[in-house]
Records
---
Amino acid sequence: MSWSKETLIAAAREAAGKAYAPYSNFHVGAALGFADGSVVTGANVENASYGMTLCAETVAVGKALSEEWRGKLEAVAVIGGKAGAVGVGDPVTPCGRCRQMLHELAALGKNDPTVWCVGEDAVLELALSELLPRAFGPGALA
Ligand code: THU
């Protein structure tokens, strides 16, 4: 089992199709690609108490950590948009909290993963460290 940039983006797009986002109607999918070839996905999960919303990236990281993924996180794909228009318009970049969640997982596998933020006209490619420079992580508590 392995993934490529294209299949990771396709996995994120498929995950977005499973979003529970009745309040914003903005569907986001995230896919985590690990060095062992595995992929873990997540979609955003909203709540009638709006502030409790979980972003797609956070759901994916929670799934991975709770299933004991500790290996090298190599890449992350994120895609979003209004229902029926996922991937249309500008790329969706991970929110601040999600950057921190991704950093925790990345630090466990000692890597600075590539983050592909998928837009209509282009895929923005960034290192996680560019999205979250000088991050606070598990090393600070060691
Ligand atoms: N959202 C994500 O899932 N990931 C992001 O990086 C940005 C925002 C979700 C949260 C909420 O359900 C919806 O998008 C609108 O903010």
---
Amino acid sequence: MKLPKKVQIKEVGPRDGLQNEKVSVPTHIKVEWINKLSETGLDYIEFSSFVHPKWIPVLADAAEVAKLIKRNPNVTYAALIPNMKGLERALTVGIDEASVFMSASDTHNRKNINKSIEETFPVLQEVVDGAIKAEKNVRGYVSTVFGCPYDGAVDVDEVKKVVYKLMEMGVYEVSLGDTIGVANPKQVNDVLDELLREFPVDKLALHLHDTRGMALANTLVGVEKGIKTFDSALGGLGGCPYAKGATGNVASEDLIHMLGEMGIDTNVQFERFMEAAKYIENALNKSLPSHQLQIVR
Ligand code: HMG
Ligand code: MG
């Protein structure tokens, strides 16, 4: 196998991981958790989202979290931003990077951000321009790349169109979302083949949910295709409340373990990471998977 020496993990647990939680999570717990994650070797944490608090109540305290976390200078602290209102809120309290998001399927886009795909482009263009003016990098997400809970199969040409538009707006990277975890390895292979004909591999990332336990297999295809950035959430937390049936992200610890065993460096110190996992497991009163795992090497 042709494998990279190193890949980057973008930890989205505090955002994607918590946004689907039905119970409210106290701000101080989030802050302590992010502080612990910040000391694991991760260099990127999506810490919250500045969306409408009524749409995602559990992340309504994004501003407080931004103010209270202890920032490690080696970590990029990013947040999800849907529109100018969100960007203004985020810039007031300080973010390192903005993530804009939209879907490749119209119905999910409408359910998630209350606009058609066409109506979303100008809204995100304003956000990208505003963030760049404030000297922030901007990342883009495309959701429902591999299937939509409402529209079913998604045409790869629709994906290409949205990826192209986001790159044209000025995002430095597009993360391809398997929002409801329906992708299979052959599909990931075929979709990446199509996209890599038009976009450079270092501008694409994968954001895989694990509904049917296929996220690691799909990751492997991505690694072989040369993708070097993968999003994941500690404990496999996560899911989009506006995508029916969506379950958690690929668990960061499983991803780090698999890559580590394959000799691919993620820079994450596994033991410290598991301390952060135990912390949030206790705080959420949940039994998260994989906690007995130890890297033996
Ligand atoms: P809307 O109701 O259409 O917003 O919601 P609007 O622009 O019409 O404004 C209505 C009111 O909301 C106004 O207040 C605005 O000021 C206010 P009023 O004048 O009536 O008093 N408002 C806001 N307040 C605070 N913060 C804001 C904000 N924006 C407007 N940012 C909106 C549109 C996009 C805001 C809403 O639909 C929303 O917040 N959606 C977010 C849903 C969400 O977070 N989904 C999950 C994240 S995406 C995901 O998980 C997928 C991903 O993980 C990748 C993958 O897995 O595929 C990224
Ligand atoms: Mg997601």
